[in-house]
Amino acid sequence: MSGSRLFLAVDLDGDGAHPAAWRHSGRPPGSVLTPQALRASVSAAETAGFTLATFADTPVPPGDGPTPAGRIEAGTRAAFVSTTTDRIGLAPTLHVTTTEPFHLATQLASLDHASNGRAGWVVGAAGDEASLATIGATAPDAAALRREVLDVVDAARLLWDSWEDDAVIKESRTGRYLDADRVHHVDFEGATFTVKGPLITPRPPQGQVVVLAPAALDVDDRADIVLVDGPDAEDREALAFAEVEIVLGTTTAQAEERAARLDADAAWPRSRRLRHVGTPDGLVELLRSLAVTFDGVRLHPAVLATEFELLISDVLPVLADEGLFRPPAPGATLRDSLGLPRPANRFAAAS
Amino acid sequence: MTSTTPDTGAPYDPHAQVHLGVFQVGVGSLIWDDPAAAPHVAIETFVHVVKLLERGLFDAFFLGEGLRVRENRGRVYELDVAGRPDAITQLAALAGVTEKIGLVATQNTTYNFPADLARRLASLDLLSGGRAGWNIVTTDNAWTGANFRHGGWLEHERRYERAGQFVAAAKELWSSWEPDAVADSGDAKSWARPGAIRPVERHTDLVDFRATATVPGSRQGRPVLFQAGDSDGGRELAAAHADVVFSANTEFGKAVAYAADLRARLARYGRSPDSLRILPGASVVLGDTVREAEEKARWIYHQQVSPARAIAYFEQYWGTDLSAYDPHGPLPDIPPSEEELDPSRGTLPIERRKGKLALIAQWREKAERENLSILDLARAVTTRHDPFVGTPSQVADRWAEYVRTRAVDGFNILPDQIPASLEDIVDRLVPELQERGLYRTAYEGDTLREHLALPPLAPEGVRP
Asked: Which SUPFAM superfamilies match (chain B) (predicted)?
């Protein structure tokens, strides 16, 4: 699934992806925890034409020692901007290990209702001791963690289908508000939990919230979008988005200098993720090449005040001119924007 | 007046103000079979309501919660409005389009993790600029627990013990950032001053975690705490922790007794009578004349206890299908099942979980004696929150007595019709209250704590 068109997502957590971003944001460090900052960045992303904004999160502070210790819970951030935007997708990271699957499914369904169909979910799988200690549990081994990811995604998807689309009938003659044959127990049994259902929230407008899963979780068959580290899209059932970290400068040398300066303040560990340290034009070229094999990219600007601004002023307009991306239409659901069909309800199909 | 002033544990106050909230349960006996009823889940309905209430200068908008969809004999209950959003998510969405009104989320201490819930509430509080509240509720039934990891783990007797520990832990998390913890500029040595954010931990058999808060205190310090339980355990929790009680004691005599009891408990916790606001639930039905208001109230009640609902009500008790019986005819002649009530009523009070056979015997006697049909009996025995029915001027006069005697500090409106019940109150009752000096004419503060005129937080809330 790819072509010469690219869906653009951007992660808007904190002051940027770089751990030293807060020193270079041009505003007091505490501003990142204000509603004004959140609204401004999401609104800028929507106006620029991004398909989707994501909100990184962990159950523990984002940094320790000198780096930022503050972060507003991601689902709440996404909900807060849902009523002041009308086309950008909103995808918080919610962790399967440190919450109740039932609450997680309810929160995401509610975000989808509040945004009229623009909710996504970046599947988080925090598995470290400190994260699990927040719920009084201990870290699972790799096999147990994988099982938990599969179970929680499956439970959430079942719960989103637990109300059929036409469950509310408002039938005056019989006095029935809903039809009990169209609201279902899910009776999910996972390795560590069970869920009876149905969800307390009617089916999300998109039918199913758009699920984004990091490739490392290896749950492609359960995801709508797989977030891929590295340059190889591989052949996948879901849409493939490349993860791209970005440091920009007017020349490549300037960008490298800037990266070195940021890294001197705090190390930005390299993973297998692509990292572009260079010019906006160079980034356009990279994205053009990624468009051949990938369906989309998720951009991680080192510093929102700089790299995100440059994406908006110098990168997106060029991509738009080349027809490489198309902004979502007002009122469109996230599935509409991504060209994903609205899934049939498995319970409706069964009955 | 003074000679007959009832003892509410607080002196008569001729300048007392009415504080108003709306409790949007979101499900249950809301009237849906009416062309004026707004779609119950659409965000547009909620935005309309919350903006209306902000125009009416309300203190707060509450969302209810119930963690399992109600059932009748193993099937989802069909006759009532069902389906609602997650409260914190919905209120965060509404925070984005409002500036003043308080936003209160009902959240359960039995089926949440303390650090996770405290973090989400603090996030709502920060994003709303200090307008968040938490209506603390507990659940003990395993039926609801079937949706959760630790379903049915908590004995009835220990649910308030857990709630007390849960709330104390949440308060500690909310005060774990020192006020000036974050650096002033990017040149500082570190983002947060070392030691200015304290990890919190608890290791008991009821509350067990270690966490570091990622969210600082809001403009109001922490979310305002509401408590609704009316049992002894609930009242103690309120006296120990709550800023506001949302009680069911609406009738004047009950309200007076409740206020006196609660204020006596407050004193035992070293708290002043003004550190806790009492806002009972209230339905309001207004008309241009008394007669019109009474007719409307009757219409609403008859919608709520419809023939179909009357049958369903008794099915809960009989434990069997009664759909073949005529609601306008006599009570079913068949004996009820032996087993006690299905807790799937969800909010079934504990005293109704036993002794149903005796209750049914009483009903039979009453129906026979008074010649009541199934429908008549249902309307006679189902309780309704004592509604305030009358002209706007009459209701305003009654409320003046309620607040000036300090029996209550205001009301949590339970709307029967959304949005019509609320439009009536904002457009017709609020001006009457204002005319009597009982109600603000503009918001004076920005936070929920300020709207409620609560005293500044005790030192636990703002650590030096």
From this structure: Bacterial luciferase-like
